[in-house]
Amino acid sequence: MIEDQLRRRGIGDDRVLRAMSEIPRERFVPKELARMAYDDRALEIGLGQTISQPYIVAYMTEQLQLQPTHRILEIGTGSGYQTAVLASLCETVYSVECLPELSEKTQVRLHQLGLTNIRYAIRDGTLGWPEHAPYERIIVTAGAPDIPGPLLDQVQVGGKMILPIGNHKAQQLVLIEKKDNRFVEFPLIGCRFVKLIGQRGWKAP
Ligand code: SAH
């Protein structure tokens, strides 16, 4: 996975590659899919949700240029795989998931893996987690129709946010940098995530 899917496609940040080589991805997928855990694709994790493709996890993480002192807000805990990668690269991950059952399972999993610098919330992540804001970094791992305003407010000045924007079929990753009093947007690669559902996202089906 590291050589064929990540390094060969241009992921060059050794810290990201090392983190992904150390985290046992098979622990984050349902038992019956364990043999596919390192395949070049997203996989179903139940409740209609997916664990992201390894390349997308690496790409988004690399774009964020995380430092060990950073506090990051993650929207869409899901399986917790991206959470584990972030936790090994920064000071604290504040991870928000709207499905209680999924969050609770993932909290147990990440605890068993010995990751202690993660805080969890079960709530609508389109509103962020204002109690701990501002964050040096924000990552959203579900597709949004447009940029949720509350998340922009919660990025620290000088900070960055990455998220997929688009319709329910296809999105584009967008990196946003918050300058003194303005935002600069960088459109990146195409991608496909499950929907970000909430007050500032898609309506629940
Ligand atoms: N990074 C995760 C991606 C999981 S899929 C992984 O690789 O496993 C996206 C997740 O976002 C799902 O678990 C979904 O329930 C969650 N989600 C969707 N809308 C949300 C919202 N408004 N707030 C928090 N989580 C949300």
The CATH architecture designation of one domain is 3-Layer(aba) Sandwich
Report the order of strands and helices.
Answer: HHEEHEHEHEEHEEE
What percent of residues are in strands?
25-35%
Q: In angstroms, what is the radius of gyration?
A: 16 Å
Describe the protein.
This protein has 205 residues and is an alpha/beta fold. The protein has a domain at 56-191: Rossmann fold (3-Layer(aba) Sandwich). Helix content is 25%, strand content 28%. It is built from six helices and nine strands. The strands form two sheets. It has a seven-stranded mixed beta sheet with strand order 5-4-3-6-7-8-9. β4, α5 (100-112) and β5 form a beta-alpha-beta unit. The chain is globular. The mean pLDDT is 97. The structure holds S-adenosyl-L-homocysteine (SAH). The site of S-adenosyl-L-homocysteine (SAH) has 25 residues, from β2, α4 and β4.
Secondary structure layout plus pairing:
Layout: H1 2-7, H2 14-22, E1 43-46, E2 49-51, H3 54-64, E3 71-75, H4 81-87, E4 92-97, H5 100-112, E5 118-122, E6 135-140, H6 149-153, E7 155-166, E8 171-178, E9 183-191
Parallel strand pairs: 3-4, 3-6, 4-5, 6-7
Antiparallel strand pairs: 1-2, 7-8, 8-9
Which characteristics define this entry?
6 helices; seven-stranded mixed sheet; binds S-adenosyl-L-homocysteine; globular; 205 residues; single chain; alpha/beta; Rossmann fold; two-stranded antiparallel sheet
